[in-house]
Amino acid sequence: MACPAELPAAARCLHGQDSAGAFYLVAIPPQWNGTLVLHAHGGPTLGAPKLERTVEDLQRWAVVVKAGYAWAGSSFRQGGVAVHAAAEDTERLRRIFVAQVAKPKMTILHGQSWGASVAAVGASTYTEGKPYDAVLLTSGVLAGGSKAYDFRLDLRVIYQALCGNHPRPDETQYPLWMGLPAGARMTAADLRQRFESCLGTDKQRTAEQQRKVQTIVDLVKIPASSIAGHLNWATFHFQDIAQLRTGGRNVFGNVGVQYADVALDRAVQRYAADPQAVAAFAADTDPNGRIPVPVLTVHGIDDPTAFVEMDDSFRRTMERAGTAGHLVQTFTSDNTHSYLSEPVYPALLAVLSEWARGGSKPTPSLVAARCAELEVTYGKGCRFRTDYVPQPLSARVPPR
């Protein structure tokens, strides 16, 4: 197929659909360095897989191909929060690349956002024959699904206590942990309308709407600009989890959680998580840390979507697995989630490649220095904070 315009002019692109139904896209630069970057995308998206999603991923990560790496990404065979299935789809794509394109000298497994959990799970699941030489995790949701999404239940119950329109009093009532009941026909536009009727927009709010927004910002610890996005996730993705992943059982509870507002603490609805549902969800979504190859991570300190504190959780996971020696974590002063800057990713890939080839374990300072060198080629954008250490997730999300 024709490559997206963002890629080098002489790049070659191939696409297909695998035996499980996932669409995939492969890009080979005109002068390939022999390394394949196998990409696990974020989201996750809901609904049937589409090639267009994978094209969008390649457009976003075009700098990987510009830097001389081959790139391959899968749409995954299904939408929704299914981590092991997505890891399986990603490994299937690696085998397709080897069989149909070329045998790489090195394969780096790259997971972005939710895809970082896919990559972390895949790297510990598929180890026979060493299919992956190294792992790059960017802006990762790395606390595991059993912990990473608790704050979104907090958002649902606080929003409902403040707004009372999701659901409305005249609608069928349901426990908020399920997102929406089975068969509900609410759309993202419908939800946005309810959100704006209660909280206004970023450009226009009454004093009362601003008070409610500030309450959410203070209690849930997310910026005002990301409330709508997280509420969307806590609606449609929670529905996916309840209806398709846990057999209608509850993964998310808030019994005993103390919200720092006395009136709201009394007003919010309370739910107890089902231990069996939590265990099943954790078995699919939580990394175990048993990754036998070098792992390099990067995360914006003020990421509004995936909290940087989840990197502390992941470090502890690898410590428990006895693999902390395989991990180097880096942080930047960015306040974005989906993409940091052009020079960051070639720097990470270069340092990680050298480490995987037998070089010394890198330091955050080395990564920052390499990024600064590459600004000549890729433009400004290096904002590494080599002294930063994230707090535990419990410092941001009330434990339960």
What is the secondary structure topology, with strand pairs?
Elements: E1 12-17, E2 23-28, E3 35-40, H1 51-60, H2 62-66, E4 70-74, H3 83-100, E5 106-112, H4 114-125, E6 134-138, H5 145-148, H6 150-163, H7 188-199, H8 207-220, H9 227-245, H10 262-267, H11 275-285, E7 295-300, H12 310-321, E8 327-332, H13 344-356, H14 364-378
Parallel strand pairs: 3-4, 3-5, 5-6, 6-7, 7-8
Antiparallel strand pairs: 1-2, 2-4
Helix pairs in contact: 3-4, 6-9, 13-14
Description:
The chain has 400 residues and is of the alpha/beta class. The protein folds into 2 domains: 12-144 and 286-395, Rossmann fold (3-Layer(aba) Sandwich); 147-275, no CATH class. The chain contains 14 helices and 8 strands. The protein has an 8-stranded mixed sheet, sandwiched between helices. Helix 3 crosses helix 4. It is globular. The termini are far apart. The model has no long low-confidence stretch (mean pLDDT 97).
- Tell me the CATH topology of the largest domain: Rossmann fold
Please indicate the percent range of residues in DSSP E strands (runs of 2 or more). 5-15%
Give the fraction of residues assigned to helices.
40-55%
Q: Report the uncertain regions.
A: none
CATH superfamily of the largest domain: Alpha/Beta hydrolase fold, catalytic domain
Rg is: 21 Å
Cα shape: globular
How are strands sequenced across the largest beta sheet? 1-2-4-3-5-6-7-8
Number of helices: 14
